[in-house]
């Protein structure tokens, strides 16, 4: 099998072959939507709205439904709806804000974000659900506050920054999923599959709703992951 990685404009960047490196695969989604296919790729990916949370586990770690997390999740969900024209949580209207935060934490889709509020030029990760933290190999305390540039190699800094700038300028189509290669805590690589990226907007001061002129972060949702257990320098 060969994976083709595409940049923010759909340009092919490089090709990885599983004959050259030991991998393990994890799918974050159980029920694929076969009508939704990734542009320029032959395999089917999963629609971000294809899951539903039927049971909310009460023993979830408290940071996932902390009031500040609940507030941020609302901004992420509101912004996702504006960018995508559909809910990330299909049953959102039936859940309280706290239940929505728990549902996102337990989602079979890996969901994370980083924020531009405190240092727009050096964004940091400020959220990762259980699947997202597992994909990168961090605990919550290790991940939140981490400079997001640590998710790529130094050689990839410029490419990553170009991607972030492209999204912030509104030159990125969030409806087109991509596969993105990133670095885990232990230095190994993870290929995030079927990734949706969208701007997170701030709320209007003293009002409900979001302000599309106020980009405060970036949301990330991935449908699956391939973990590379060998040294990725073979592709350098």
- Summed up, the domain count is 1
Give the C-alpha Rg.
Answer: 17 Å
Helix proportion range:
10-25%
What is the H/E string? Answer: EEEHHEEHHHEEEE
In brief, what are we looking at here?
With 236 residues, the chain is of the alpha+beta class.
Explain this structure.
The protein starts with a strand and ends in an 8-residue tail after the last strand. It is of the alpha+beta class. The protein is globular. Strands 3, 4, 5, 6, 7, 8 and 9 form a seven-stranded antiparallel β-sheet that branches. A hairpin with an 8-residue loop joins strand 4 (110-115) and strand 5 (124-128). It is 22% helix and 28% strand.
Map the helices and strands.
Blueprint lengths: L1 E5 L5 E6 L5 E5 L39 H18 L12 H10 L3 E6 L8 E5 L1 H7 L3 H4 L13 H12 L9 E6 L5 E15 L6 E13 L1 E5 L8
Antiparallel strand pairs: 1-2, 3-9, 4-5, 4-8, 6-7, 7-8, 7-9
Descriptive key words:
single chain, 236 residues, alpha+beta, Beta-Lactamase, seven-stranded antiparallel sheet, two-stranded antiparallel ribbon, 5 helices, disordered N terminus, disordered C terminus
């Amino acid at each position: 099998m060969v994976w083709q990685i595409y940049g923010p404009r759909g340009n092919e960047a490089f090709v990885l072959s599983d004959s050259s490196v030991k991998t393990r695969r994890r799918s974050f989604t159980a029920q694929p939507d076969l009508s939704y296919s990734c542009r320029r790729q032959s395999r089917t990916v999963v629609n971000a709205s294809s899951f539903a949370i039927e049971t909310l586990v009460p023993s979830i770690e408290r940071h996932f439904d902390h009031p500040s997390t609940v507030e941020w999740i609302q901004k992420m969900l509101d912004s996702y709806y504006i960018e995508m024209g559909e809910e990330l949580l299909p049953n959102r209207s039936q859940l309280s804000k706290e239940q929505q935060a728990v549902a996102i934490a337990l989602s079979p889709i890996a969901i994370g974000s980083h924020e531009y509020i405190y240092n727009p030029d050096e964004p940091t990760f400020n959220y990762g659900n259980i699947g997202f933290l597992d994909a990168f190999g961090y605990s919550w305390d290790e991940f939140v506050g981490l400079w997001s540039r640590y998710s790529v190699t130094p050689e990839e800094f410029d490419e990553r920054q170009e991607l972030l700038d492209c999204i912030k300028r509104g030159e990125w189509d969030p409806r087109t999923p991509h596969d993105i290669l990133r670095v885990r805590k232990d230095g190994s690589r993870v290929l995030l599959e079927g990734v949706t990226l969208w701007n997170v907007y701030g709320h209007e001061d003293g009002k409900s709703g979001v302000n599309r002129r106020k980009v405060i972060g970036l949301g990330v949702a991935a449908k699956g992951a391939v973990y590379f257990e060998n040294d990725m320098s073979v592709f350098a």
